């Protein structure tokens, strides 16, 4: 598998490449960036790091039958010749240093639209290729790419798995269990209108009830914590570790032929959950070509209402920019 990360010299892009090199060393990665020098430096450094991953105890157990992949740098002009199996879009305009409040994601829409439009022009020379959008605001930009490129909608995915990890952290504290044992799907918008699907919470695979009194606090924690991280560490760092781990999970799932259990990514809807002309986080299973299936779960009345609010918020912005 060959993954091309657009914006590969960025904090998130380079961290994704590093994570893939450690966990899935058979995957080829191209760091595509207008900053050729920085992209080359990251690719070279990560390649050297791969030596230690490979020679640590059990390091070669992750290597597939095709052997080790390569990490290399490239420019946007190289995209038609790269022939990637997956595109990861992470290019973004620099954020102001004070972009540490909960409205920061929505404020990025105007700054990043022009970048999306330029990259879409670069991608038109490619055959339809799965595209995972990591740049904020994710749902709006995922749909923008779909509108500009016109590829089959299953090719478009927006990253939203960080919320799942954050919700697990908050729920685990209330239940007195380890966060890694908790699963709470997160639908809706990657932002204020995130929808915790409490009706499907599991601990070690078994259904559990999150007390009603805790649910608003869980949702607030998921909304607040990335900005608290930015305040304490600086906006240029962002939530690089959880994002790179989640993006790598998507990459590894596609490389393996798909995910057995659905997880939530943003993808264009065409009637699912009663919505269309929008991209929202919904449960999906993947294959090597992108979204193989959108699952329509039965939601509680509160979950359904919150999902409608997410649709209305995202759709309002799309109507403004169309």
What this model shows, in words?
The mean pLDDT is 94. The longest helix is centred in the last third of the chain and has 22 residues, at 212-233. Helix 1 (11-23) packs across helix 8 (240-255). The strands form four sheets. The protein has a six-stranded parallel β-sheet, with helices on both faces. With 322 residues, it is of the alpha/beta class. The chain has helices at 11-23, 36-55, 79-82, 104-123, 138-149, 162-175, 212-233, 240-255, 301-321; strands spanning 2-6, 28-32, 71-74, 86-89, 131-133, 156-158, 182-183, 186-188, 194-196, 202-203, 206-207, 263-270, 276-287, 290-294. Pfam families: Ldh_1_C, Ldh_1_N.
Question: What structural category characterises the helix and strand content?
Answer: alpha/beta
Whole-angstrom Rg? 19 Å
CATH class of the largest domain: Alpha Beta
> Could you please say which CATH topology of the largest domain applies here?
L-2-Hydroxyisocaproate Dehydrogenase, Chain A, domain 2
Average of per-residue pLDDT values: 94
Shape: globular
Main β-sheet, in a few words?
A: 6 strands, parallel
The strands making up the biggest β-sheet line up spatially as 3-2-1-4-5-6
Q: Calculate the terminal CA-CA distance, rounded to whole Å.
A: 34 Å
User: In the CATH classification, which architecture of the largest domain applies?
Assistant: Alpha-Beta Complex
Low-confidence stretches: none
Number of strands: 14
Fourth-level CATH superfamily of the largest domain: Lactate dehydrogenase/glycoside hydrolase, family 4, C-terminal
Total domains, how many? Answer: 2
Order of helices and strands: EHEHEHEHEHEHEEEEEHHEEEH
Task: Please give the share of residues in helix.
Answer: 40-55%
Strand content: 15-25%
Number of helices: 9
């Amino acid at each position: 598998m060959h993954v091309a990360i657009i914006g590969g010299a960025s904090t998130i892009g380079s961290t994704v490449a590093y994570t893939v090199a450690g966990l899935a060393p058979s995957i080829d990665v191209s760091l595509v960036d207008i900053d050729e020098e920085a992209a080359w430096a990251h690719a070279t450094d990560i390649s050297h790091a791969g030596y230690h991953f490979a020679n640590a105890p059990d390091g070669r157990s992750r290597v597939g039958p095709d052997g080790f992949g390569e990490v290399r740098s490239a420019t946007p002009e190289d995209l038609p010749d790269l022939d990637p199996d997956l595109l990861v879009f992470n290019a973004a305009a620099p954020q102001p240093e004070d972009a540490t409040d909960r409205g920061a994601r929505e404020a990025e829409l105007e700054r990043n639209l022009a970048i999306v439009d330029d990259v879409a022009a670069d991608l038109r020379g490619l055959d339809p290729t799965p595209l995972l959008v990591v740049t904020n605001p994710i749902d709006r930009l995922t749909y923008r790419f779909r509108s500009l490129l016109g590829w089959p909608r299953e090719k478009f995915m927006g990253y939203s798995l960080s919320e799942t990890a954050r919700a697990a952290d908050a729920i685990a504290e209330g239940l007195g269990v380890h966060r890694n044992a908790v699963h709470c799907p997160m639908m809706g918008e990657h932002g204020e209108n995130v929808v915790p699907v409490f009706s499907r919470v599991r601990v070690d695979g078994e259904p559990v009830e999150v007390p009603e009194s805790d649910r608003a606090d869980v949702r607030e924690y998921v909304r607040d914590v990335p900005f608290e991280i930015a305040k304490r560490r600086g906006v240029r760092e962002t939530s690089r570790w959880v994002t790179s781990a989640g993006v790598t999970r998507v990459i590894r799932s596609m490389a393996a032929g798909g995910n057995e259990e659905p997880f939530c990514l943003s993808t264009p809807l065409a009637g699912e959950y009663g919505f269309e002309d929008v991209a929202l986080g919904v449960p999906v299973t993947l294959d090597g070509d992108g979204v193989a299936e959108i699952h329509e779960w039965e939601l509680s009345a509160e979950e359904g209402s919150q999902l409608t609010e997410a649709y209305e918020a995202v759709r309002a912005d799309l109507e403004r920019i169309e």
